[in-house]
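request received
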Amino acid sequence: MHRRLIPLAPAVLAALLVLPACGSDSSSGGGATTAAGGSAGSDGSSGAAAAPAAALTLLTYDAFTEPDALAQFTKDTGIAVKVAKSGDAGTLVNKAILTAGRPEGDVLWGVDNTLLSRAVDGKVFTPYQSSQLGQLAPDAVSLVPGHEVTPVDTGDVCLNVDKGWFADKGLRLPQTFEDLLDPAYKGLLVVQNPASSSPGLAFLLATVAHFGDPGYEQFWAKLRANDVSVVEDWDTAYYSSFTAGGGQGDRPIVVSYASSPPATIYYADEPKPTTPTTASVDATCFRQVEFAGVLRGTQHEAEAQRLVDFLVGADFQGELPLTNFVYPVREGVALPQLFTDFAPPVAHPLTLSPADIAAHRDQWISTWTQTVLR
Amino acid sequence: MVLAAIPLAFLAIFFAWPVAAIIGRGLSVRGIREVLTDPGLRSVAWFTLWQAALSTALTVAIGLLPAYVLARYRFAGRSLVLALVTVPFVLPTVVVGAAFLALLPASLDQTVWAILIAHVYFNLAVVIRTVGTLWGQLDPRVEEAARTLGASPRQVMLRVTLPLLRPALLAAASITFLFTFTSFGIIRILGGPRHPTIEVEVWRLTTQAFELRAAAALAFLQLVAVTGLMLWWSNVQSRQAVTLRLRPRGTATPPRTARQRALVASTVAGLVAIVVIPLGRLVAGSLRDGDGLGLSAWRGLGAAPGRGPASRPVADPLAAVGTSLRFAVLATVVAVVIGGSAAVAIAASRRGGSLLDAGLMLPLGTSAVTVGFGLLITMDRRPLDLRGSWVLIPIAHAVVAVPFVVRAVLPTLRSIDPRLRDAASTLGASPARVWLEIDLPFLRRALVAGAGFAFAISLGEFGATSFLTRVGNETMPIAIARLLGRPSPANLAQSYALATVLMVLTLVVILAVDRLRGDAVGF
Amino acid sequence: MLEVDGVTVRFGDRVVLDEIGLAVGAGEVVGLLGPSGSGKSTLLRVIAGLLVPDRGRVAWDGDNLRTVPTHRRRFGLVFQDHQLFPHRDVAGNVGFGLSVAGRPQAEIRRRVTELLDLVGLPGFERRGVASLSGGEAQRVALARALAPSPRLLLLDEPLGALDRELHDRLALDLRRLLKEVGIAGLHVTHDPEEADAVADRVVSLEQLGR
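response:
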């Protein structure tokens, strides 16, 4: 067997170098894409006038779920869209910065307000002023005066509580940040490490917005004394620590999203419950805005812009709540019943300006780490 | 040496260049200075070092007895036990980590103990296979001679056996140290945010905080430390290499006395129990159906991903299986060729050999983020426009697997009596013929062991793959991670089902490879 | 003196040794003849304690050695292919038995020199095992076995691997050595001339069993 391996070696190496020229991505079976082929960012395309059936690659994070409406875009324009997922939001943006000018895709979905400045400074995008901007929520649009990106959805990171657990124990549900310091709630809260988790960071920013800097430090010191649990990411917090997550948890208060309660119904097995066992705590909500943009260096700028327009169009926006559990940024789009019943939009969420976040984020995280973890 | 050029070229293109590129992006003297003087980072570095050292020591110590039993005794089910023990090593920590976490008592949550225990669990196979291979080939009569000279069993072990096993012990220790030093999933899942290691910090600085200067400095320092360590180890190894008279077919015999039988039974039982419990939890998790047990997760595996809101097409499990297998085959072929030629080149030359040896180990000591991101910014123009290509994934797997092939082959290669080669030469055999007739029979066993390792590693590789994956070529670990990251309990059960498939596949592959080596006797 | 009585060893269905009995008196060198594969080595291993027989007993001066492990029997064993420790030099090999017994360094050094002189290899202390010729290695093996003053020396075809001239010379040396030390010995070989040259009396394995 091995005698034949040795002459094989140069053949293998040669093959390895030749193979890529035979075409890049192989769509081998399934995957949640709508069409085949097309390698974004390669030098293969002819440049100027793209061939009729062009294809776009949409870069996004792992947790993204494509609404069915995306297929409509291909039907309307003849442009195929491939969704390429890579990592979480932070990884996604950082990869984009590293490859700025030679992007892996054409459109990026998933940079949020906490990462916006970083992406803009990294010259990741080609500015595009969508014709649809007038239909979108003004305070979202105003976050991007230079139009490097277009807002596509909003969401709120809030505390979620397990109503059932609190009812059993006869405890009042916490309503505010300050409530969390109550000795009665000792050892009931689990949060995520803001250094490595997007909702974790959002919650930290919420406390900064609410208590101010340096007020938030004191708050966290007291939270630590009240036995707050810290885990690395949202999955661990929600599914392992949260009592209403997978059943094994021991903490009935978790940092999650305003849209998590209706999600528990949506993803439940049949027969589905009529009300969720969890609720979000509005006073603790921090507004996240997500953006999408055309990547600088794409070979299909015109098509990419059409895609961006589609992403903020009524059809796509309407499907966002039940696919990705976020709120449409387009005004006048009806929310599904599940949302209006159990997750109506938060009236006054906490916010911080992207510039503020960019300037102090690292310092806040490092102070938090000192206060809570060391 | 022409032979050395092959692994060198491979390493240069697919590792050295990308890593240099990404580190070069952020590297600066100032950055290094900042990292070295930052007390937080210094304590992180110190923690990384001592937890790796302790994990290594524990793993080697605990693995010796199973290595001995499996090497020296033949019994029914031996290959199965050996294969079973190797499974945890291969499975990605994202898969087993959750099961492991659920099994540990709550008091160990987010503690160093949890990390140490998990490290031993995942790396035991390295010790058992590496040390066991050589142990099985040692002539037991050397130990018998010691016994007739009055050495008690303990003295035989300390004064004769362990010194003779030294090459394999060092090999196993070096791999285990490397893995525990750059451990990522275990640190995060079991240690939580309170025990970061250098690897975790590099990941965080690169993917979350995007502080390339600090990340580059840290990655660079890690690389330097690992390189130094590997060079030192490699030197020690080649200097101490002693020509052994090996029995290539192994020396296993069935246990004869009641005491031997008891030893074998208790060791095997303990080993299997330890290995199987977390894996069993995975299988059990796949049988959850609502509140009771059921096979819905399994039935769902085969179903084509549907459209529409009710069925979340998160991942296509069956396609993932096929993808994983294809990648593994390619990765193994590449790894065996590169690793085999490297091992020969290393054994043949003293000084240069140590350098090549250390160089090949470097990928194990470099964080997956660094390599992954490095590939991202280098493989983006012709003739190596591989950035979007699926080929990069098996190549990345091969890069990680090559040191294993080398480690599996090198101790045996170094222990072959040169007089055998001389004998063949004087009989008229050319150097190539000598290699084929003398080295290869001894190596055949080790090469196949290395190939088995490489295949298994490719199946379960997660770190580098996760940075290189594109839609349509998810491997099983990626698919499992995707399923684990979604809300529904159905997805959770399905992820466990896929994990079980991965487990069984790994088991079958390892069993097949072990059988392929010919004759049941031997490790 | 050594007493072997009714020793039977089976490997699977094959009966290798069948009710073997023999005796070796104090200071006596007994030669044991038998063709290759007849179980001679197996018998030596049983006597040394390396193999537990299916039946029979091995006794020294009347004491049954069933419960005595190899390392306490004080029976030296010289293998056909010397089995020297590759990771130790000649002195390290020869002094091994004394070292595990915890003897002081000075004593070990003295004894090693003494024995190397005895086997005709003076000054070989620092030599590496791999650099020895066949005859030299066998002599080192002999010295090693004799160093801890065993009560009985078992020799498993010790001259089998050597060339004719060396063989003859060493056979005489061996006899002289054993007599000089005054030790009891059981010398196993397939060569009747060798047996005659070394031993006081020669028996054949066939005669000893059933």
